[in-house]
Amino acid sequence: MHPSTPPYGPEIPRPVRRRTVCALGTATALTASFAPAASAAPTWSVPADPFFSYSRPAVHGVVREDVRVPLRDGGYLAGQLYRPADASGRPVPGTFPGIVYEYTAYAANLEAFGDGASFFVRRGYNALVCQVRGSGASPGTADPFGPQEQRDNYDVIEWLARHPASTGRIGQMGVSYGGHTTLLAAVNRPPHLKAVIPMNGISDWYENTIYRGGIYSARIRDWQQATAPGTLRTYAAHPLYDDFWRGRSVMSRWNALTVPTLEINGWYDRYRDGMVKNHLAQPEHVWLVSGPWEHGYPEGQYAGIGPGGYLAWWDHWLARDRRAPLPAARVTSYEIPGPGAGGGWQRFAQWPPPDAGELTLRLRPGGSLWSAPGPGAVSSFDVNTGTTAPEEHQQLRFSTPVLRRDHVLAGDATVGVRASFTAADGNIAAVLFDQAPDGSATRITAGWLKASHRHGHTRLSRVTPGTYYDLDVHIWPTHYRLSAGHRLVLRVSSDDHPEIDSDAPAGRVHLRVGAGGSALRLTVRKARAATP
């Protein structure tokens, strides 16, 4: 993982033509131990696309200048401007396109950022690394992704465009924090911003990070304390979705996401839901690359994925070199897991793929997942108020039979839960696992929802103890092959620490299953043999 990665780290989907996918095989009993997904292997193949293998030699040296970028309110931000240099170390005469390489609060990683920026500088770009207000040597108070930080970013882009050594054509890129700011810069539309490359970025800070399904994410607090302690108070003061969060959202301004955008997403990354939603909102402007990596720069954890594609993107949009290719398809996705199990790199004109259809599986009495609902019944579990994994009495598990053929999940999923609570509110955490023949299980993806947020996050919906409610739990997207001989397992519980707080009131949760009860809706491709 790249050193910039911190310890922590809306849905208007494009309509999908869905088909009915055939039912699974016969049901058998569930015996599984649950384990987290394995890390991506660094030896897998690379996309067979000239975009990713694009290359041209370095022609310049690099000179660094520490700068203060003036802001409209009279303040400034600290930055490091990297420029093409001649053999004597002096700036090369002339003008060059510019890249805001990282606009971030992670000032501790300046040297690593400088090394990354230098790749582009040696090939004819100015590159600026800039510390946001209240971080590093930039004065002020940090407010991650807030309106002031966005105004500052706008000013940074326009300052770089006005630099005497600039052509006026500017791009911005960044990972994690820098990916978030890059997407927000795009929807703010500085006039000289011509293209962006966000990596592991948001669609919405509230939904993706802070309040998942309306439930505070436990894993964010250490990051808040280290990066912007004031947010421990301000975020807690806004548990519902309001203008405070709209001002920190790409989703609220999707109509403005029209600059050419190359999203670098990871199927094991915590922002995969937001990145996919950005593409679905603006498929004509947002290219999506989703690989088998976790949070961080993919080239730091995945051999063969390097800056060549980024260079092609900048050469095409900033240098206006039409010989520089664009990705061969709007969506380039690695079918995980792999190598060996998944189908590797694939190209699609849209997401989900055109051959994807909806498969509905019913949560049945006795813990099976099946296309036929079976008799109606009620299954129950106790609320887990601790921070350890749920025990047997604190969860329900539903399993498909052993799969007779491969099934490829290619998109998001929804668990339609019909539930009642003994308390005045409750949480539903839905986690999908791939259970191997030996009983071991790998986490695939998950989703969460607070019962009082079942109608959205702008207002609370009353929860009366003992009354059954329909809750549609959105499960984050994946591109995952379930191999023949495996099972798909759904775990339903009240907690999924540290992804969410274990803040549900103590008590018991009852689920209607079988006829008239709960169901899992998956997006599944036609079965094909894996061809890595």
Structure description:
- By secondary structure, the protein is α/β, with parallel strands linked by helices.
- It contains 10 helices and 24 strands.
- It has a 10-stranded mixed β-sheet with strand order 2-3-5-4-6-7-10-11-12-13, with helices on both faces.
- Strand 2 and strand 3 form a beta hairpin.
- Helix 3 crosses helix 4.
- It is globular and about 80 Å long.
- The relative contact order is 0.16.
- The share of residues in extended strands comes to 25-35%
Which structural category fits the helices and strands? alpha/beta
Helix coverage percent: 10-25%
Number of helices, where a helix is a run of at least 4 consecutive DSSP H or I residues = 10
Unreliable segments of 5+ consecutive residues: 1-42
Whole-Å distance between the termini? 24 Å
Rg to the nearest angstrom? 24 Å
Number of strands: 24
Which of globular, elongated, flat, extended, rod-shaped describes the shape? globular
Q: What's the rounded overall pLDDT mean? A: 90
Query: What does the largest sheet look like?
Result: 10 strands, mixed
The neighbouring-strand order within the major sheet is: 2-3-5-4-6-7-10-11-12-13
